[in-house]
Amino acid sequence: MGHVLSRERFADFDQYREHLRCWDTEAVQLSPGTLSIGCDCLDAGDVILMRLNFQPAALFKSARDPGWYTFILDSSPKRWCGIDVPAKSFRTIAPQRETNVVSHHPWDSLCITVQRDTMAAWGSPLSDLADWTPAPEQSIFASDRLAIEAFKAWTDTLFSTPMPSCSEDDAALWIAAIRERVRQHLLAVLGRKESPKPLSAVHRVARYDLALAALRRIDPHIEGRVTVRGLAQGLGVSARALEYAFLAVIGVSPARYLLAERLNRARHQLRVRGPAGGSVTAVAFDHQFDNLSRFAQQYARLFGERPSETLRSARDAFHQA
Questions:
Q1: What is the side-by-side strand order in the sheet with 98-103?
Q2: Is 197 within a domain?
Q3: Contact call for residues 50 and 158 (beta carbons, < 8 A)
Q4: Same domain (yes/no): 175, 210
Q5: Is the domain of 174 the same as that of 210?
Q6: Residues 34, 37: Cα–Cα separation, whole Å
Q7: How wide is the angle at C-alpha 243 spanned by C-alphas 241 and 244, nearest 5°?
Q8: How many CA atoms, within 13 angstroms, populate the side-chain half-sphere of residue 162?
Q9: What's the sign of the alpha-carbon dihedral 257, 261, 267, 268?
Q10: What is the model's pLDDT at position 142?
Q11: pTM for the complete prediction?
């Protein structure tokens, strides 16, 4: 892939997912509001910088491509794998590590994704991380805030400056300089690394495992009728234990999450089926919404528009393409 400096804005998660490389990601909007995603990206081939801003609250379920390693600089607080991550934190995501992160604040993060071969060639301590697969509680570094702020300030300047118009050789030199600056900033942050931030209590690990097990059960069966009681029984726990786990890890109750998941999937289907002649009624029934009036109210409350408006927008976009 050629070197690309892009600044994109998306109105839905499907468009955003198509823009990603090296990620297998699903997202569920959790709180009311009109979705707006800003994504600035510099793709240097083996190093990808991506600055992501969006609101409202959402849950991301992700897995990394095994050939890549990711660092995240969080400028806004999040709950990652059941751990509260404060603003201006620095964490890692190991290859193939299944993770989830939820934010109930406007999202502001910088993702630094590096091919593992490049990490290995950069030497210690970066090469030491290339094959490291830490548990989530080992992946948050108590880093020097000055180094983090310097890294963020440099990327803010980078994304606000147009890529120079130059020859192919000069462009290659520019990309090489960017790659070297990324390496230097990572070394500055990791060079001040203290012990990984531990979990505050053992019960948080158990609650995260329970919430993750529930999410795995929900995904394949969301088209059918899934209840909190049935989910808890299938996992061999009480409904109260399941609720505690969801509140600790995701920040919402399992009932609210199940509703948000169904509404998000219905929204996706309205966009997909719209050009093919789908209807709001068919999509609502497919996702276990028996009361069309209540479905429309819940949908509009979460997404800021009626399902018929989503369907109309999908058809208009198809005919204009």
A1: 23-29, 58-64, 98-103, 78-80, 83-85
A2: no
A3: no
A4: no
A5: no
A6: 10
A7: 65
A8: 3
A9: positive
A10: 63
A11: 0.80
Q: How many CA atoms lie within 13 A of 31 on its CB side?
A: 14
**Tens-digit pLDDT profile for residues 58-80:** 888 777 678 888 899 988 888 88
Dihedral sign, CA of 132, 137, 143, 147?
positive
- Kindly state the tokens that stand for 24: 């297998």
Q: Which domain holds residue 32?
A: 4-191
Quick check: 83 and 191 in contact, CB under 8 A? no
Domain check: are 12 and 156 in the same one? Answer: yes
Q: Which residue's entry shows tokens 């959790």?
A: 30
Amino acid type, 167? S
Helix axis angle for 202-221 and 228-235, nearest 10°, is 120
